[in-house]
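haha ok so turns out i had the wrong file open the whole time. this is the CORRECT one, sorry everyone. sequence first:
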Amino acid sequence: MNDSNKILFRQFVWYMLIFSIIGLILETAYCFITTGVLESRKGLILGPVCPIYGVGAVVIIAGLNRYKGNKWKLFLMGILLGSLAEYIISFGLESLYGSRFWEYSYMKYHLNGRISILYSLFWGILSVLVIQIVKPLIDKYICKIKYFWINVLILVILVFDALITIWGVNVYIERVEFGRRKPEKSSYFESAKYDFEEICFSNKIMSATFPNMRIIDRNGDEIWIKDLINK
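then structure:
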């Protein structure tokens, strides 16, 4: 396995998949332990993944692998790099959807609700664990995967899931915020597409998958989408 700071294609794919799954498990467990509520913390509609952790892991590994011999420097740089990545992704998702998938305004010491000191510390801890323990273990096994098509297939599935999620979230927000209705005069394709969206991206499915999704109203206030559904 290449020991340089460069990430090979197969490493990128498996890091994205494995850390997205691990992140989902950890966040779901943390939510249940701290609130007593067992709810979806998924980032995509289809797969059991939370991509923020996959992206964060790739950024951390690419940027911090050079510090693997110094735990404290790795910890501090992990705080900075992980927080920066989380802030940028939060801003990007809100710009794309007009919605927030996570929000930390209820916590002490946050920055615009996008990052908080507690989760920044988590990024530091995760950086040490990922670089010094988890990455070497993963590399040990993925180097044995000889079939290139498996890596391509995993990436295609993740991209497909991401595109489906973008589609579903846009339909969900449009329906809840603007009262989306079926066109009276529409072609067979348009009618079939609408029916498909209403079944696969129903309020029940979307609110269960993304229970903490919020939108920003015209006054700049955050509103929980599930509250709009209940009105």
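The chain has two domains: 9-142, 148-230.
again sry for the mixup
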